[in-house]
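ok trying this again, last paste got cut off
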Amino acid sequence: MPGTLFLIGTPIGNLKDITLRALEILKSVDVVYCEDTRRSIKLLNAYEIKKPLKSCPHFKEKKQIAPILDALAGGQSIAYVSDAGMPGLCDPGEILVAAVREANFKVEIIGGVSSLTHFIAGLGEELESFSFVGFLPARVIDREKVFSQKLAAPMIFFESPHRIQSSLEILRDKYPDIRLILAKELSKISEDFFSGTPTQLLGKIKSFKGEWIGCLFPARLES
């Protein structure tokens, strides 16, 4: 029988946020492919899982398709994990999944923690709809274009610790009254949520270290 590719959600910060099913699959597969072996080995070691671990970041996905398809054809089961959260959600994995399905092998999704759903749960806002733009662009001019869009629904974005202050300053200068909610280090001890205008948040936030996610609310953009 051909093997199965298991796409596994992994913790975004707290290693205990791993499902029992994910652990069961990781223990049962023949090999684990991952975004970064240095990150994934910590997860495997934490649960005493001894499996061959192979690197498959975004820039190597196409190169790894052939050996993975060969392994599946030979009956091996394979797990794929990204550094944190669900593969394919601003993480590698989509190229691999498409190729495996195209070759008529089975892909099984093992759900887990997602920074997007974690953040939405902590907003304290009812979102009937929203847009998700992933990571904001690195260049200031491109971030200005993103923020200048007329939004029909709240917009959720990821941002790096190196650019979050700059992004807040862009919003302060262009839309000083905009309302937004930011959160950092989701699921970690240092997790924190901040709500207010850009000026208020620039005054509230003492450290910009950590991974950030934010939500812009369109009513203020249009005022």
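PB: full thing came through this time. Strands lie at 4-8, 31-34, 53-55, 78-81, 106-110, 131-135, 155-159, 179-184, 192-196, 212-217.
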